[in-house]
Write a structure and sequence with these properties.
Layout: E1 16-20, E2 24-29, E3 47-52, E4 58-61, E5 64-67, E6 72-76, E7 83-84, E8 93-98, H1 100-107, E9 119-124, H2 127-141, H3 147-167, H4 175-190, H5 199-202
Antiparallel strand pairs: 1-2, 2-8, 3-6, 3-8, 4-5, 4-7, 6-9
Length: 203
């Protein structure tokens, strides 16, 4: 874990749930703030991305106080000093750490893209990013056959979801996915013929 977070002690992350793969880690505060995160001018050896759930977490970086809105992803490159400022209660976010060599290796798959400086910039995150974080954490806790392979697969998915977001690489919904959505809506309508069906229900 230290190759991602830094020189952290168990006491400092006692309020944090941890999910780890070989090159990727997800850290979610549950009963209080991470004491390493709140230490002044700390750094991480990994690329650090924070997916904010409630928009209350404040970060001090380059002499400025930054606060990502709910549903935004913010990023900090390795070695940049920053600090999570103390709050009134447990923060609600997922911190995603990606080992530099792994992250940059995946970045090479986007040859024309330019990585932002990653000094606290934020991006509105698509809902599937939160889903990718959740799937990664679920599989890390699993004891089912194939766990190790799936953990690494979810880690790769998570890394590329972040890369596509920060690089501005997007794709439209494929035709097959749209047809699946239409089929689900038709099935829902047909199974509820005995009651009013609203557009919001179908959506």
């Amino acid at each position: 874990m230290r190759h991602l977070v830094g020189d952290i002690s168990p006491r400092q992350y006692r309020h944090v749930d941890v999910a780890l793969a070989k090159h990727v880690g997800v850290f979610t505060p549950v009963s209080g703030q991470c004491e390493y995160a709140t230490s002044p001018k700390h750094t991480h050896p990994a690329f650090s991305f924070v997916l904010s759930f409630d928009g209350t977490t404040r970060m001090l970086l380059d002499g400025k106080i930054l606060c990502a809105r709910p549903g935004e992803l913010s990023g900090v490159a390795p070695g940049i000093p920053h600090q999570e400022l103390p709050g009134d209660g447990p923060p609600r976010y997922a911190a995603i750490m990606l080992a530099p060599r792994y992250f940059l290796e995946q970045l090479r798959r986007y040859p024309k893209a330019v990585l932002p400086p990653l000094r606290g910039e934020s991006w509105p995150a698509p809902t599937d990013l939160a889903r990718a974080v959740k799937d990664f954490m679920i599989e890390c806790e699993s004891d089912l056959p194939g766990r190790d392979a799936l953990v690494e697969a979810h880690a790769l998915r998570l890394c590329h979801a972040i890369l596509r977001l920060v690089l501005g690489v997007a794709h439209g919904a494929p035709a097959n996915a749209l047809r699946m959505d239409i089929n689900r809506a038709v099935e829902f309508a047909q199974s509820h013929l005995h009651e009013p069906v609203h557009v919001t229900d179908l959506a």
